[in-house]
Amino acid sequence: MKTTFTFLFFIAVLFVGCEKNGICFDATLTDGFCIVANNKVILNRKDIDYYDYSTHLIYLKADNSFNNSIDFVGTFTIFADRVQIYKGATLPPYSSYMPSGPVLMGHYLPLANYIVPIDLTQRLDSLGNVLPDPCEDVRIVNALKKYDQFHAGLSCEIKSVQYLAPNKVKVELVLKNNDSFNYYYLDPDKMGVGLFHYFTNGLSIRDFVGHKSYTHPISTVKPEPWNSWKKEWISVINGNEHKTITITYTDFELVPPGRYKATFNYPGLSYQVEKKDISQENGQIWLGYLYMIQEITIQ
Q1: Which of 84, 92, 186, 222: CA 20 to 30 A from 245?
Q2: Residues 234-273, buried b or exposed e (16+ Cβ, 10 A)?
């Protein structure tokens, strides 16, 4: 009886130490990258093919049963080499609640079953400033690199927004490949503006005071069928290459002179692409989206 009590006490001390020190001794944890939810490890490095850091999409080695683990409102914890890095919220797919910070959602329909997304709702401090993204942590990068599971992915920035006429606006974006291998990306020149904007809202300009937004009335073109994609839509961006993407809106809403925030979501494909089609002849199809924001002045 005394031996049993001593053993149980020892186990309890270990778990208390896990919470206190941020280091968990649960035998189901591995080194590398792990996710714990509902008091159990639901994903570890043995499940992961790679992690696209540009969009925080986790590509799995096999179709996942992960979604079945997220059917409750609760919390999850990210570990890197058994060290607790950050916590976030878990949500079932039917939940209308959207907390700030990192979010894991069960049965995430916009993505295929071989991908686990970590979403982020921006958090603000008392002055309205955006707080740092807890997902951006060098310890996560190092843990992923340890097992060759880190992909830097793509990044994009708004280079300029130019008014060529009262309702004619040109936006220049700089798309960058941060990996050494090639990616395929959605190319608006190949797709056409209407089809490209089926996947994104495109350029939006918002004022600083009343938060009024200005945008464009582009009619989107739906793919046929709705869940399809074509190789003719995509172009290659080589490893470590920059590309300038230009989109011109001919009927943009009239924006008065002043200072504004310009935003743009650069889209990728998602649920349409089967796992076997990710790797193409000259590179890998990039999935996800990139959110950009830039302060601009309109004369």
Answers
A1: 222
A2: bbbbeeeeebebebebeebeebeeeebebbbebbbbbebb
Q: Of the given ranges (96-105, 129-138, 234-243, 280-289), which has the lowest mean pLDDT?
A: 96-105
Q: Counting every residue, how long is the chain?
A: 299
Give burial (CB, 10 Å; 0-12/13-18/19+) of 16: exposed
* Residues 84, 20: Cα–Cα separation, whole Å: 10
- Residue 68 has a pLDDT of 59
Bridge partners of residue 163, in order along the sequence: 169
- Per the structure block, which two tokens stand in for 33? 């990258």
**Rounded distance, CA 75 to CA 72, Å?**
9
**DSSP letter for each residue of 107-120:** S-TTS-TTEEE-EE
Structural domains in the chain? 2-145 (no CATH), 154-298 (2.60.40.2970)
Supply the pLDDT for residue 244. Answer: 98
Nearest to 249 by CA among 264, 259, 237: 264
Share of the chain above pLDDT 90, in %: 64
The pairing of beta strand 150-151 with beta strand 119-121:
unpaired
Residues facing 213 on adjacent strands: 206
The greatest distance separating any two alpha carbons of the chain, rounded to the nearest whole angstrom, comes to 85
Q: 133: exposed, middle or buried (C-beta count within 10 Å: 0-12, 13-18, 19+)?
A: middle
Span between the terminal Cα atoms of the chain, in Å = 82
Q: Cα separation of 224 and 231, whole Å?
A: 14
Characterize the bridge pairing of strands 57-60 and 48-52: antiparallel
What's the pLDDT score for residue 287?
96
Q: Where does residue 178 rank: exposed (0-12), middle (13-18), buried (19+ CB within 10 A)?
A: middle
pTM to 2 decimals?
0.86
